[in-house]
Design goal:
GO biological process, one term: protein insertion into mitochondrial inner membrane
Order of helices and strands: HHHH
Keywords: Membrane, Mitochondrion, Mitochondrion inner membrane, Protein transport, Translocation, Transmembrane, Transmembrane helix, Transport
Helix content: over 70%
Structural class: mainly alpha
Distance between the termini: 24 Å
Strand content: under 5%
Number of domains: 1
Number of helices: 4
Number of strands: 0
Pfam family, one: Tim17
Membrane topology: Multi-pass membrane protein
InterPro entries: TIM22
Largest sheet: none
Shape: elongated
Length: 135
């Protein structure tokens, strides 16, 4: 295993881990807050199983998003032999395509909306990456 692939594998694993933790924290802070507001108003009983399922779904979704970003960025870095903003853009673009995926496979987002969302994610990721990792 080369040094570049070991670093890439570690970055990918770290991003997937961060995705799982972000999903769990999202559930605790956002979904949990909404659920507790409904419990407090008497609209619904406390349902910890539903919150646990939500944590699993959110953790999985964030892990897939960040894993796609990291995997594509690392693959581009490995194929191109450079570590620059273009790899980060490709990772962000690929992850951005996931944002337009629908739960119903028969319902497709427009190609234009998918392309624009992916481009914005890629641009944001590459700009953020350049400013946060000056080399």
């Amino acid at each position: 295993m080369t040094q570049q692939s070991a670093t890439c594998d570690a970055r990918l694993a770290h991003l997937v881990y961060r995705g799982v933790m972000t999903g769990v924290l999202w559930t605790v802070s956002i979904d949990g807050y909404e659920h507790l507001a409904k419990v407090e108003s008497g609209a619904t009983p406390l349902n910890l199983k539903a919150l646990a399922r939500s944590a699993g779904r959110n953790g999985g979704a964030f892990a897939i998003f960040l894993g796609t970003f990291g995997g594509v960025s690392c693959a581009a870095e490995s194929l191109r032999g450079h570590r620059d903003w273009k790899n980060t853009f490709l990772g962000g673009f690929s992850a951005g395509l996931l944002l337009t995926h629908k739960a119903n496979p028969a319902a497709f987002s427009s190609v234009r909306a998918s392309f624009m969302t992916a481009t914005i994610c890629g641009a944001f990721a590459s700009v953020f990456g350049e400013f946060s990792n000056p080399e």
